[in-house]
Amino acid sequence: MDIYVIQKDCTACGACFSICGEVFEPNDQGKSEVRPGSDDELPCVMEAIFACPTGAIHLDD
After folding, report:
1. For residue 1, is pLDDT > 80?
2. Is 57 exposed, middle or buried (0-12, 13-18, 19+ CB in 10 A)?
3. SS in 3 state form for the chain?
4. pLDDT band for position 40 (50/70/90)?
5. Domain containing 30 — which CATH number?
6. Which residues are CB-contacts of 50 (< 8 A; sequence separation ≥ 6)?
7. Would you say 24 and 34 are in contact if contact means Cβ atoms under 8 Å apart?
8. 60 strand-pairing partners
9. In this structure, are residues 45 and 59 in contact, taking their beta carbons and an 8 Å threshold?
10. How many independent structural domains does the chain possess?
11. Residues 6+ apart with CB under 8 A from 38
């Protein structure tokens, strides 16, 4: 699977990296990015997707 964050939709709330810091990290603007080489199949990824208030996190097969 491929996980990504739509930067224009991210509000830098921090929910995703609070829930799943193994996969998400803040960039220079505080917005979420996927950590390079991270395991996008961790259970916390789905938690982060559902917790995102703007729906900025997406997962493709």
Report:
1. no
2. buried
3. CEEEECCCCCCCCCHHHHHCCCCEEECCCCCEEECCCCCCCCHHHHHHHHHCCCCCEEEEC
4. confident
5. 3.30.70.20
6. none
7. yes
8. 2
9. yes
10. 1
11. 22, 23
For 47, the domain range is 2-60
Rg, the chain, Cα only: 10
pLDDT band with cut points at 50, 70 and 90 for residue 61: confident
For the entire predicted model, the pTM comes to 0.91
Q: Which residue has the tokens 């990504």?
A: 4
- Identity of the amino acid at 27: N
